[in-house]
Structures are given as C-alpha cells and as structure tokens.
Amino acid sequence: MTYQTHAESWEQRATIRTRPRRIIENDELSFYPIQRQPLCFDPVIAKLGDEVRDIILLQSLYKYINDIVIFETEIVNKTALDIMKGRFPFDFPFSARYDAMSVVIDEDYHAFVAMDFQNQLEQQTGIKPFQTVTEIELSRAIPRAIKSLDNLEHQAGMELIAVAISENTVTSDVAAFATDKSVKRSIKGIMADHLADEGRHSKFWIELVKIYWKGIDESARLAIGAAIPCFLEEYLTNDIQKEFDTALVNSLNLPQAVRNKVIENLVGGYPITNQHPMIANIRRFFTTSGLVEHQPTRNQLKQYL
Question: Model confidence at 294, in pLDDT bands (50, 70, 90)?
C-alpha cells in the first residue's frame, strides 16, 4: 500500500508557520464552555452565583490546557518519534517517517501555545491552577492495554492503534470547543488553530494504521484485535475527570456540608454510552482504518460497532 505524504500541505498550512500569537481578551465571555462542565448545572453550585461558576470554568480550562500538553508531548509524540527515528518495529516508508516528524513539530507547538496561554491566564486573573494533573485517561489506558500483550512487536502495534484512535476522537472534541459562542475569541482561536492541524493528523494516523494492519501477519492481528477492547474499556471512562471535579469542589471556599452535597451529585454524572460522540468517532475510525475488515477483530469490537 502506497503512502501519500502531506508535506506540501504542512508547509503551506501548519499553524506553526501561519498563525499569530493569541492574546487573551479582558471581556465578559467565558473561559470554558459551560456545557462541558456539569458542575455548573448542579443546583447547589448554580445558587452560589457567577463568581463560583467562573472559578470552576477557569480551573476547567487549566485542566484542559494541561491535558493537551500531556496528550501531545507524552503520548502522541512518543509514538511519532519512534516512527520517525525508525525505532518502531515495522518498516514504514520514508515519506511516512518524514510526516511523523511534522506531527512532532505541530504537537510541540500546540503545547508551547498552551503553556503561553496558561501563563497569560494566570497573569490576567491572578488565579493559578489549584492542582497539577499529571495523567489523562490515555496515560492509564495505553500501558494497561500494552501490558495485556507479551510480544513486544504486538505491544508497539497496540500503541500505534491507541494513538490513532485518540487522535481521531480529539479532533471532533476540539471542533466543538472551537465553535462555542460563549467562549472568549482567543480561546476559540487557539482551538481552531489546533483543529487545523489535527484534521491532517487524524488522516495521517489512519493511513499508518491501514499500512500496518495490512502488513502484519494473522497472529499479530488476532493478538492486537483482542487487546483493543481492553484499551477502550480504560479509555472510555471519566474517572480522572471525576477525581478532578471532586478535588475542585473541595478547593472552593464553601462549607463542608455544601461541598459534600455537590460531590454526592457527581456520582454517575459522566456516562459514556453508545450515543456519546466519542463512540461515533471511534466507530468511524474502525471502518476507515480497515481494522474491522478482519472478522475476528470485528467480533471483538462488536459492542462498539
């Protein structure tokens, strides 16, 4: 299978080459989409007024920014660098390895922009993140899925597919953020810039999975196909978000009884059902990447199709 490089498109459109620095506005718009933070709809929180709501939204943006940095520098770039440097145990063509380098540059730039923007927020608001989150769902899901496989080459394949799945789910997530009219223009601008690159990245990872899946033997497909549900079970949770929201509520200057009531209301507040947008994106990835053309893998993934 031939790989078509996206180098020309990258040279012309990559945000590192074409976007100005985003400066945060001092206006009345929100730091974070209220629809993405169920805490703001808790009746107890709603009664506490705009100041508490705005602190929750600012801290939620800090977490989102930190998640971007973790995702791009610790997860996506690790796999992309392995491919670019020829450390990945599969012979991808030079054009794919070259494009992997452009992904690394993009992702590091996104993290650079995120760090700059967080600093601007701290300077403007005088409020720092109340905690530093050190992992995201993928930080748990990928190692656990890899651990379920004994063969090192199969582990690498599972890592590749996990990163490809995540890159194809985050794109739609960023798109929804970028179009929210309640959010400050600079924040939407950063997300739109990010989206401009992520659309290209999602296609890159799909193409790599296509090449990889067709190039490995049946025993590898069977082993990796059986491990994908393990990855999805860990990935499709909101445990870390619940942990963050619980800690956020406890950080607020509220009576303990009030905090306890809000935390009690968090239980079951983050279901990921078959109607969740992430599932639709994953289902689309399984089809476009060719994974489910392999009937045993299709059988393993039937609950997600």
Answer: very high
Is 59 within 8 Å of 39 (Cβ atoms)?
A: no
Short-list 62, 38, 40, 59, CA closest to 50: 40
How close are the terminal C-alpha atoms of the chain, in Å?
Answer: 26
pLDDT of residue 232: 94
Q: Is residue 116 part of a domain?
A: yes
- Indicate whether 190 belongs to any domain: yes
Please work out, in degrees rounded to the nearest 5, the angle formed at the alpha carbon of residue 173 by the alpha carbons of 168 and 175: 100
Which 3 state secondary structure label does DSSP give 92?
Answer: coil
- Exposure of 66 in the CB half-sphere (CA atoms within 13 A): 19
Q: Is residue 23 part of a domain?
A: no
Of 237, 209, 187, 228, the closest CA to residue 26 belongs to: 187
Residue 1: inside a domain, yes or no? no
- CA gap 230, 76 in Å, rounded: 19
Q: How many domains does the structure of the chain reveal?
A: 1
Judge whether residue 71 has pLDDT over 90.
yes
For residue range 120-143, list pLDDT tens digits in order.
999 999 999 999 889 999 999 999
User: Which of helix, strand or coil describes residue 150?
Assistant: coil
State which residues form the domain around 202. Answer: 7-18+32-304
- CATH code, domain with 132: 1.10.620.20
